[in-house]
Amino acid sequence: MPGFTMNQNKEKKALVINPWVTDFKLYDEWMHPVGLYFLMSLLRFNNWDVEYINCLERQGEIKPKRHNTADFPSRELMKPGLYNMIERKYKRYGISEENLMHRLATAARPDIICVGSGMTYWIDGLAGTVSTVRKIFPDIPLVIGGVAATLIPQILKKRIPEAEIFSGRLTDKNAFSHSMLNTLSLRGWKPELISALSLVPHLPHGPILTSLGCPFRCAYCASSRLQNKFQARPRALIVLEMKELIARFNITDFACYDDALLYRPEAHFIPLSREIAALDTPVRIHVPNGLNIRWITREILEHMKESGFVTLRFGYESGNTKYRKETSSKAGKKELAEKIHLITSAGFDAKDIGVYVMGGLPGQQVQEMLEELDFVSSLHVNVKPVFLSPVPGTPLFDHYAATFPRLHEDPLFHNDIFFITQLPGWSYSAVEEIKNAARSCNGTLS
Which end of the chain is less enclosed by CB atoms within 10 A, N or C? Predict the structure, then answer.
């Protein structure tokens, strides 16, 4: 790959797998396993021969929806007993077991298998993936890394004892010194996506990652555990990645995965947006992660418009002042109203603007959340209700684990749709009430 040299070590083979997901819901709203892409980049930099299997690959019969989002193929599973009161189907999302078995059977015999991990409560999908892999490769060393591996390494080791659990960061010095991957060298490597994406056979949309980490410490977020510091990525590399994706896959839809996209915008976002605006091919850019609405200015909105930003989502959580500590004081009601007016005045379509409202904050009641939904809806934008998933290593996890010690033992307890039903005053019917209220509010924007 032009511009990216590789170390001349003896070539080894690695099989990298993005695993199945088990949950009540999963939708491809521009999802990408960016961490696995970086791992594949590092492996190739070290002259490894890499093969990639994406268990969440969208198949031909899946019809794309707006801006190339879509459903995933899925198969209904028996619900874990813990979830019996949840009146929804529990599914395994991704390609069929037969499809995965075929891909494994036709893959070159690897020296090592690397499996990613996402949400902690997706553990059944991860374990099922490893179990299927072991039917074809029972004796190949297998390493699990990623989000869940970092947050719950001991639980994963107990559940999947034959795997090594890698809970470090790819960019850490000596990250692999005690791992099966101990021959990997970071010397001279920069986290890049191009060499990894050349291994992906098909992409309906592309990732943009302009930075790593987050300068803030919200009580419900584990970003600081996953990345210990905020670091902007080189603008030239970001634009080069976009150009490669456009040329290789004819992509027009991109999604930003930053935790703090607009942090210090004069130094990074604004000059980057100018370079994106200068691309030969017009693109649509979506931000599914919640932007900090306090950083929105008229100038930033102008640059967003010029560079192709379409879908904007904002982390509001709650305008109630008693939750300021948990939400890092993102915005009050007055400020949210002023910023939304600024955004719509800049020409962004109300249907493409979403505001996240959180349920499950300490002491929060159902009626409070319903009132928040009504307020956000009165601003004529989409309201996006989300429910707290207690994430290990965060202050809110520790807060709730004092009442629910099972949080330390069972990742299924972390599931957002389930956990909210355990809180005083909440139930599955309350969750459905919230969801229906949001659908009713958003229906007026159609």
Answer: C
